Amino acid sequence: RWLIQSHHELLNLARDGQWEEFMTHLQSLEIPMPEHMVNSVPAGGRKWGIIHQLAFWGTAEALSTLAQLMTLYPELDLELFTKDTPPQRPYDIALQEGHEEFSQEIQNKVEIKFANRDTRSGYPSALTIMDDDYGSGFTPRSVAELQIAEIAGTIREKEEWWIKVKD
Fold first, then answer.
1. Looking at residue 82, what DSSP letter applies?
2. How do the domains of the chain map onto residue ranges?
């Protein structure tokens, strides 16, 4: 539970644009914040994750924080959708707020793939993981099409194994 509390504290610091305090708090955690939490939008009325707050602020300090986060979390999801209607990516938020340098930085780091999006949910259609603590789904990163069959095969094998064990 302390990790979830720390995640909410980080989200509050990000919401308030307190990037120095954000990085200090992130780096002071006894156990590093798991990447899937950094790449999520938690339940409880929140609609934006950390990366969305960075894009909203779009300052030089936010850009510096983005670079530090990408070093700590190489799989940082720069295409994570908000829970807004319609869902927005960090790139969209930065453009909307007039932060051209920030949006360009994101665009340079991400190949935006609209074809892989599920048009109903806004999430990548390949994989969404449900998080019981947050009561919502999150997509840690896109899954290549070739890996989908491999993952599905592994899941099917495990299900068959459990049926045998159960019987």
1. P
2. 2-166
- The encoded tokens of residue 131 equal 């998080």
Residue positions counted in the chain:
167
| Cβ atoms of residues 141 and 159 within 8 Å | no
Q: What CATH architecture is 2-166?
A: Alpha Horseshoe (1.25)
Q: Which of 41, 143, 33 is nearest to 88 (CA)?
A: 41
* Percent of the chain residues topping a pLDDT of 90: 31
| pLDDT-based confidence at residue 32 (cuts at 50, 70, 90) | confident
Nearest to 55 by CA among 63, 47, 43: 63
Which tens digit of pLDDT belongs to each residue from 100-122? 999 888 887 765 433 344 444 44
